[in-house]
Design brief:
It is a single chain. The chain has 188 residues and is α/β, with parallel strands linked by helices. The protein has one domain: Pyruvate-ferredoxin oxidoreductase, PFOR, domain III (Pyruvate-ferredoxin Oxidoreductase, domain 3, 3-Layer(aba) Sandwich), CATH 3.40.920. It contains 6 helices and 6 strands. The protein has a 6-stranded mixed sheet with strand order 2-3-1-4-5-6, with helices on one face. Helix 3 packs across helix 6. The longest helix is centred in the last third of the chain and has 20 residues.
Length: 188
């Protein structure tokens, strides 16, 4: 980890499993010695309203548990754009779903537009787009050991969904490893 503090937001809508995948990432990071604070914001509707889950990661004690300057932003729906982009640090990493977040405003960030939900549908369930995104984030940001993340996914997944979640995680890693930025730094 380059900085003493790294902030990540996974944003989209309720029902996409954003809080679960952030918990999986937090669990994996904790097993490798990082200190992590996780928080979430969601509208009162259980599905379809704005939702995000934030992680603050540090090698030392997390002095303030809420994200204030994002290093990484994962967008699984365009609804997360407005509340999230203003918090993104210049040069930050943005991973956006091509289908549910097709257009992004110009900005000073590294954009990877990836077919996260399409890949999940190809695997058999759009519900695993969060896990595809998790694998892509881990591959592109280099924030977590793959084995630790696989272990966290295994620990948090019911047996009936384990195979598809592990396939989704592997698909996300492949997307991340093969990705080239959709746009270099864009200045808006």
């Amino acid at each position: 980890m380059r900085d003493a503090r790294l902030e990540i937001r996974i944003g989209g809508t309720g029902g996409q499993g954003l809080i679960l995948c952030a918990k999986m990432l937090a669990d994996a990071l904790c097993t490798t010695g990082s200190r992590v604070a996780q928080s979430q914001t969601y509208e009162p509707t259980s599905r379809g309203g704005y939702c995000n889950s934030d992680l603050v990661i540090s090698e030392r004690e997390v002095d303030f548990p809420l994200a204030t300057a994002l290093d990484c932003l994962v967008l699984l729906d365009r609804m997360a754009l407005k509340p999230s982009l203003p918090l993104l640090k210049p040069g930050g990493l943005v991973i956006a779903d091509t289908r549910l977040c097709p257009e992004l405003p110009a900005g000073h960030y590294r954009l990877h537009h990836l077919p996260l939900s399409r890949r999940a549908i190809e695997l058999g369930s759009e519900r695993v787009a969060n896990i595809v995104a998790l694998g892509a984030l881990a591959a592109l940001a280099g924030i977590c050991e793959r084995k630790a993340l696989e272990h966290a996914v295994r620990a948090e997944t019911p047996k009936s969904f384990l195979d598809i979640n592990l396939d989704a995680l592997a698909a996300g890693y492949r997307l991340g490893e093969q990705a080239t930025p959709t746009a270099a730094l864009i200045f808006g």
